[in-house]
From TrEMBL:
Name of the featured protein: HTH-like domain-containing protein
Top-level taxon of origin: Bacteria
HTH-like domain: residues covered: 43-97
Length: 157
């Protein structure tokens, strides 16, 4: 708009561009006073603070923890804003992936003998049966018992 002011009316240009005339003049004042708008300056300040908190946490904190730290310092900022700035800066927190070992074998324990010699289908039903127990959380257990002859026939068929 600034380059076209000599040839066109500011009010008409503002109406055509769907912006307010007062907003355009405020923009000119801010630009004349300092080339950085308050919004851009606030974002730059947040970027510096976010980077500082991320480095202080040994690059492990994500947006929720950094947001909490900034709020503890008195900064009024949303978690979405912190997350967006972190994406723009190319930094991210570390989410530890927990691995829970559910079975611990005793190397000194004797294993039960293989009574079927790994041959599960003996040619007719009711000779070899298998069972399995599946545990999901503390309240849900599933026990499955099946005739391996029928399982082998179904797999072959």
């Amino acid at each position: 708009m600034a380059s076209e002011c000599a040839d066109h009316d500011v009010t008409r240009m503002a109406k055509l561009l769907d912006v307010s005339t007062s907003g355009y003049y405020r923009y000119l004042q801010v630009r004349a006073a300092s080339e950085v708008s308050p919004r851009v300056q606030r974002r730059r300040d947040l970027e510096v603070k976010i980077l500082a908190h991320h480095r202080a946490s040994h690059r492990t904190y994500g947006s929720p923890r950094i947001t909490a730290d900034l709020r503890a310092e008195g900064e009024s900022v949303s978690a979405n804003t912190v997350a967006a700035i972190m994406v723009d800066l190319g930094i991210e927190g570390i989410s530890p992936r927990t691995f829970k070992t559910t079975t611990v074998t005793d190397p000194a324990a004797a294993f039960p003998p293989d009574l079927v010699g790994r041959r599960f289908d003996r040619g007719r039903p009711d000779l070899v049966w298998s069972s399995d127990i599946e545990r999901r959380e503390a309240l849900f257990n599933r026990v499955e018992v099946k005739d391996l002859h029928h399982a082998a026939v179904a797999a072959a068929g």
